[in-house]
Amino acid sequence: MTNPEVRALEPKALWNKFADLNAVPRPSKKEERVIQFMKDFGANLGLETLEDEVGNVIIRKPATKGMEDRKMVVMQSHLDMVHQKNADTDFDFDTQGIEMYVDGDWVRARGTTLGADNGLGVATIMAVLESTDIAHPAIEALFTIDEETGMTGAMGLKGGVLKGDILLNLDTEEDDEIGVGCAGGIDVTATRDYEVEPLEEGKTGYEITIKGLNGGHSGMDIIKGLGNANKLMNRMLFDGFENFGMRIASINGGSLRNAIPRESFAVIAVDTIQKDAFEFEFKALADAIKKEFKLLEANLDISFKETSAPVSVMELGVQEGLLKALYAAHNGVYRMSPDIEDLVETSNNIARVTVEKGNIEILCLTRSSVESSKTDLVNALRATFELIGCEVDASGDYPGWAPNMDSAILKVLVAKYKSLNNEEPVVAACHAGLECGILGQNYPGMDMISFGPTIKGAHSPDERASITSAQKYWDFVIEVLKDIPKK
């Protein structure tokens, strides 16, 4: 049995289903195994189970006795998970299940993302479907695919497939929060080719490494001002170029669009005659940056090691333009919401920067709860990168979810939370992409709400799920299902 320590936790129904799910590799856009896993799960329970055209799985369960007069509920979570690991972790996400352990009140994974986002939501729905003692109305379990890299599952779900009146999205990451709105997003990609030039004689090569950053969710964590490995690497390279004529052979920074980049690597060359001065300046700037981030990024490491000089480097003019464009390109919070206190309205994450073999690629994820503000930031990025000759493509646009403070299911959840916890919940919109906004396009009359257990560090290897929160959340789910309004 995999992960026995986690399976022993309470509530066992939830944690055992989570352990079952985490044994199945489920990267975004490679969900074939987890789709089959869910279809087998539904079929083995004897429940109506179907897969739609894009790969979403829907399982229907009739109401329990005495609940037949309640509105049908859609319980929804996404099957895919963000795959991130530390550079020194040997792990194959395509073939291995997540290795979990208990650390005090937290469930963590060994050197990788945990998959609690949104695996705990999926496990919740599985446990309800399998239960014989939980009172609930008729349920449609909707398991969407590819939420993390494009929301293509939600986008591909056609109108008329779902029959439910109320949607419970289980993808919020604070157990005292009830989500009523979210940001939309768009992928911005800048690319261009460059000429590769042979490196002159008399150069010394270096490998530059930035690592140890927290990373995290590029929506929920963007407000924290955490270090972005791509921006920090560019700062180091810009300084080396300005002061020592440094030449770039390659850059490899960040990974997924929705993860704040934790690591970046570059191979560069400087005149050997300036070797000592370059190293002195590098260390001084690295120390200054670490001092700037000492409270936010205690484990930040900026280092270099001498290596063989590269055979070739990028052409000088393009290199200069790239360094200036990456310096100018906006990263982080662009605008705070004037309507909701402490809510980020618009932001950008410079998620991935690669320079190699004559090609530059820069991947960003721009988010906003206001369409016009999102367009404004996309235009600012497009202008910045087009000035250095890049082709800029904006794709994968998805809408936000506008709050409905008169929602009937919101009133149920607020009242139930207060009665269970003797305190008011936080009713809020979030600066992350939830599928509610997309689903609402084809199901405009559906009453939607989002909630979930406390999860920290999502989209990073520091992802962890609170054990006590999971119990609190599970009790909340059960009580909410008992109190669904009548038809």
From TrEMBL:
Catalyses: Hydrolysis of dipeptides, preferentially hydrophobic dipeptides including prolyl amino acids
Source domain of life is Bacteria
Where does the record place the Peptidase M20 dimerisation domain? 209-294
Instruction: State whether keyword Protease applies.
Output: yes
Look up the record and name the cofactor or cofactors this protein needs.
Zn(2+); Co(2+)
Q: What is any Pfam family matched here?
A: M20_dimer
Q: GO CC terms on record?
A: cytosol
GO terms (molecular function) for this protein are: metal ion binding; metallodipeptidase activity
Instruction: Please cite one Gene Ontology biological process associated with this protein.
Output: proteolysis
Q: Return the EC number.
A: 3.4.13.18
Q: Which UniProt keywords apply?
A: Cobalt, Hydrolase, Metal-binding, Metalloprotease, Protease, Zinc
* Family in the record: Belongs to the peptidase M20C family.
Q: What is this protein called?
A: Cytosol non-specific dipeptidase
**From which source organism is this entry?**
Dokdonia sinensis
The beginning of the lineage is: Bacteria, Pseudomonadati, Bacteroidota, Flavobacteriia, Flavobacteriales
